[in-house]
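[Discussion] Sanity-checking designs against the backbone

I'm trying to build intuition for which residues belong where. Below is a structure token string of 259 positions. I'd appreciate it if someone posts a full sequence so I can compare it with mine line by line.
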């Protein structure tokens, strides 16, 4: 696992976007089409904004999917990941295709549709974050590290649901759905390259567990330790609890001069 520490969220977003663009260009040189999986949430604001502005990417040969979606939430809902992605990314780049996870579908049909869409496709690049409880996508602890399916219906734990309220997506805990469709941990680990961006002090414990803890379902992010090409992009706050040994192995991005 490569660890990069940016000076702030803006630099984190720009670095992640530039690395994503490099990867997409490289894979497009090798393949007729490239498959990109993207994440949502507040950690991805700067990443997706910067990625949509990257030049020299033939988006017409890129297929997109996303990691997860709430069960029962329509695209028009302010917390919908479909709506989030349409506004912040999909409407800004001319993708070949984008498969939305329609939260209004019956749960089993939703999971089946997602599994059919990804069946037989390689994931060339996956963008993700880590939750306050250490979750990957919506795989809350204890996560299933042996799930056979690519997408599955999951139960959201209270810590995850409280995070959604804290980030302003919902007004109260009661409004947050109890279930979601999520890419499974084994499917995430099948991606050729993973860029995991995690800003903010509130995620420092999860970052420490992801980097330094045992590989355990109680910290789903720790599964990233098993991947051969994953970059964890942090800011000083989210990296604040890492040991000196871990910090010494991290790459600190240089400070940028004011414009």
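Best answer:
Here's mine. Compare freely.
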């Amino acid at each position: 696992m490569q660890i990069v520490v940016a000076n702030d969220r803006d630099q984190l977003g720009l670095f992640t976007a530039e690395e994503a663009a490099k990867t997409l260009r490289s894979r497009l040189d090798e393949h007729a089409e490239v498959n990109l999986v993207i994440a949502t949430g507040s950690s991805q604001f700067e990443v997706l904004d910067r990625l949509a502005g990257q030049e020299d990417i033939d988006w017409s040969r890129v297929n997109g999917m996303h990691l997860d979606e709430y069960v029962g939430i329509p695209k028009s809902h302010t917390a919908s990941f479909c709506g989030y992605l349409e506004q912040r990314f999909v409407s800004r780049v001319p993708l070949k295709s984008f498969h939305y996870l329609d939260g209004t579908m019956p749960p089993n049909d939703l999971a089946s549709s997602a599994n059919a869409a990804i069946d037989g496709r390689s994931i060339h690049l996956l963008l993700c974050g880590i939750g306050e409880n250490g979750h990957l996508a919506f795989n809350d602890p204890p996560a299933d590290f042996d799930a056979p399916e690519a997408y599955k219906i999951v139960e959201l734990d209270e810590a995850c649901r409280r995070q959604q309220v804290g980030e302003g997506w919902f007004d109260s805990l009661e409004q947050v759905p109890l279930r979601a469709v999520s890419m499974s941990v084994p499917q995430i680990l099948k991606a050729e390259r993973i860029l995991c961006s995690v800003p903010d002090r509130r995620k420092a414990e999860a970052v420490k567990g992801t980097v330094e803890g045992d590989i355990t379902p109680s910290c789903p992010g720790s599964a990233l330790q098993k991947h051969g090409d994953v970059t964890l992009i942090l800011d000083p706050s989210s990296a604040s609890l890492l040991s000196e040994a871990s910090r010494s192995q991290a790459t600190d991005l240089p400070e940028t001069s004011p414009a």
